[in-house]
């Protein structure tokens, strides 16, 4: 298991996957496993919960990691398109005004 070494405490997908596997297979509590790995218990609980959702074991309506990523990408795309529409609207108004003169 390799942890990314930076100050933002971001962990690689491999590290998270291995940590979840350890938490699920260990006789230790999630808190104990988290302490052993040097991660927050809340963070490890979240990873375990998301892993269960990704395996289809989560609550109804819970988004898988792939669905969360797709949603984030779509939201970014919508923001980009909204900016484009705004710019085009302003350009249209500018050129329409210019033609009136």
UniProtKB/TrEMBL annotation:
Coiled coil segments of this chain: 64-91
Pfam families hit by this protein: HTH_Tnp_1 (PF01527)
Transmembrane region(s): none
UniProt keyword list: Coiled coil
InterPro entries xrefs: Homeodomain-like_sf, RD_transcriptional_regulator, Transposase_8
Name the UniProt record assigns to this protein: Transposase
